[in-house]
């Protein structure tokens, strides 16, 4: 655990961290990503204090698949995103054409 603190201290200056804690400043996206990586939590959890995906995705099977997909390679993730985007687009178009 101590190792995480030393890595965190190198990633975020104590003055900036104090400003974030007191809501005087907001970290950039890059800094927030580094903080989440060091703390080994999602960026979502860092920003919201909880896992927003679990709150919004009600289908447990779908949530499980998304969690597993996060462990895929970057190229595989892009393929999953492309497939899902195409499937959702088809569903949207089908719905609009049936109106």
Automatic annotation (TrEMBL):
Any GO molecular function: DNA binding
Pfam family, one: HTH_3
Transmembrane segments annotated in the record for this chain: none
Protein name as it appears in the record: XRE family transcriptional regulator
UniProt organism field: Hyunsoonleella pacifica
Domain HTH cro/C1-type: residue ranges: 12-46
